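Moderator note: this is an archived Q&A kept for reference. The question asked for a predicted structure of one protein chain; the sequence and the answer are reproduced below.
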Amino acid sequence: MAHPNDQTLRTAYEAFGRGDFEGYLSHCTADVIFHIPGRNPVSGTYTRAQFLDPFIKRLGATFGGTFREKVIDVFANDDRGVVLARHDFSRRGVPFTYLTVHLYAITEGRLAEFREFPEDQYALDAALA
């Protein structure tokens, strides 16, 4: 039987995939932090208040509405969650696909901290330059 935080992550990602960002945030703590690595237009550390603007706004502008995320697998326990995902997007007409790992700190069943680990940060930064 899957851990309850496994379902929390899956439900949050379903909301995100539908563009229901408030639905995604409903699974997060009030002080959630998002760490996006790299040296590209989307990189940075964002608070909950910054999730929609500037983070999602930058994501949309950078990917021109082409960003897609597919959850491959989810692992969770009381304190941590891991999501393996595939990201697809086009930038200036060139398609790009990469695997990424999302690591979450979980507090009382809520997503408290997000860190992303793309398989090739240098290639991702180059694609977004």
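Archived answer notes: The first strand starts at residue 28 and ends at 36.
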